[in-house]
Every structure is written in C-alpha cells, then in structure tokens.
Design brief:
Length: about 210
C-alpha cells in the first residue's frame, strides 16, 4: 500500500536517510544545499549580526566629512602667529621708511632743478637745503638724498652766479649751459629717487659732510 503524498510544510517523519556529504578527500561538514559561510541568508538579508562597521579609513555615508572636518591643505590656516596686520608689511618700496621720507627726497632733487630754472641758476641749492634742514636730522635716507643734491647745486649755483656777470658780453650762453646742467641732472636724480635708488651726481663737490 502506497503512502499518500504529504502536504507541503509537513515535518520530516525521520525515517529518511541523511543526505550524503560532498565527495572528496576532505568531506565538508555542511550539506551541499547549505549557504556558504558569510553569504547572505535567505531573501538577500545579511547574516545574523549584520555586516561589520566601516573602518576609520572610509568616509561615513552621505559623503560628509568626519567630525571636526578634514584638515586644510598646506598645514592649515591661518599661518602660525596669524595674518600680518596693517603695519607688518613694511613701508613703501625702494628703501624709504614712510611716504614722508620719499616726499622730502623728491623735494631735494626736483626742487633743486626747479629752483635753478626759476632763478636762472643761483638758487638751485635752496630746495635741497630746506629738505636737509627739515627732515635730514630725523631720517638718514632723506639726509643722504638732500646732501647729494645740496652739494651738487651749491657748486653749480656758484658757477651760475659768477657767470651771470661774465655772460653780459657773451649773450648769456655760459649761464644757459650751466642752468641746463643743473636742471638735467636734478631731474635725473629725482627719477632715481622716485625709484628708491640713490643717485651720484657727476661734476659735484663735497661742501657739506
């Protein structure tokens, strides 16, 4: 007499022989139908206990930086000691401590050229002398510029003054040449001073040291 078919889900009566293990020299302890170790369980769910948490080398989900943020490139900011304040970058370029020194240096050179032009030579020393007396004692830079211009203009102012008397008979040609020399080199020295470079006047003398 045949046994009627069992409905699905009914228990194993226990009289069936166990399934054979996989053949080979090292038979597996698990039946062939058992899921592999570490594989997801039925319906794709992770095994009991879930997946291990991510390591510290991986960013958290959502692509957000970890707590505290990533360090900025280049060792961080601001630089050690903070950013320099308004006076930490030094004065104007060209070796001047401030704009006032630069102004007085230009007065000494350009003023000498202007004084020679206005007076036709004899008063070319006035502006360098004013710069020397007004600022030369406070600033070594202004003193150097003023002395260079003053020594040059004193020499050529004397020459211009002498030639004014001689040139009456020579149509003032020597005086014109002297004035041109004073103006020309005064302008050249002023341009150099504007660039922050001391200028060595040619054909000069050291009356004041």
């Amino acid at each position: 007499m045949t046994e009627p078919p069992r409905p699905p889900g009914s228990g194993d009566p226990g009289n069936y022989p166990p399934e054979p293990t996989s053949p080979g020299p090292f038979p597996s302890a698990e039946p062939p139908t058992a899921p592999l170790s570490g594989a997801p369980g039925p319906a794709g769910y992770p095994p009991a206990g879930g997946y291990p948490p991510p390591t510290g080398d991986q960013p958290p989900s959502g692509d957000y930086p970890p707590a505290g943020g990533y360090p900025p490139p280049g060792g961080g900011y601001p630089p050690p000691g903070g950013y320099p304040t308004g006076g930490a970058y030094g004065g104007p370029g060209g070796g001047y401590a401030n704009n006032e020194d630069k102004t007085w240096a230009l007065v000494a050179h350009f003023g000498g050229a202007l004084g020679a032009l206005v007076s036709f030579g004899p008063l070319g020393f006035v502006a360098p002398l004013i710069a020397y007396l007004a600022r030369g004692q406070q600033s070594p830079t202004v003193r150097a510029h003023a002395l260079a211009a003053l020594n040059f203009q004193i020499l050529w102012s004397i020459i211009a003054f002498v030639l004014l008397f001689v040139s009456w008979c020579l149509l003032f040609l020597p005086s014109i040449a002297v004035v041109v020399i004073q103006i020309l080199f005064g302008i050249i020295a002023g341009i150099k001073a504007n660039e922050g470079t001391p200028y060595r006047y040619p054909m000069t003398a050291n009356f004041i040291k």
